[in-house]
Amino acid sequence: SNGGVRTLLLAEDFADTRLMLRSLLEAQGYRVVEASNGKEAVELAAKSRPDLILMDLSLPVLDGLTATRLIRNLEGMGEVPVVVVSAHAAEDFYLEARAAGCTEYVTKPFDFDELDQVIGRLVTRRLMCEVI
Description:
Elements: E1 7-11, H1 15-27, E2 31-35, H2 38-48, E3 52-56, H3 64-72, E4 82-86, H4 90-100, E5 104-107, H5 112-131
Parallel strand pairs: 1-2, 1-3, 3-4, 4-5
């Protein structure tokens, strides 16, 4: 383990949003790996083995749901929490996101405290699962 530091993969195509989220997440003590498209997200998931993934749905090259499906098929990545962060109303995409293997759904513009709580809960749950 890397000294208890949790790695988050942030898949988001807008640089401004990525920078803002990265700053907020690093301030919470996470290590952040960034992908600007779905193909990069899959490659980085394989390489960095993140503890949690924040996945935008409308990514270039491969969309977020396709990327999630591919990540779910990677060795050892079947259980990693994938939190969809999307500007789409949840109702439209929620079921499809669930079917693709997404764990939670947060709608943009999001409340960072809410997002932080979701991440904290999922990362903690994962830690507890590792112990057992």
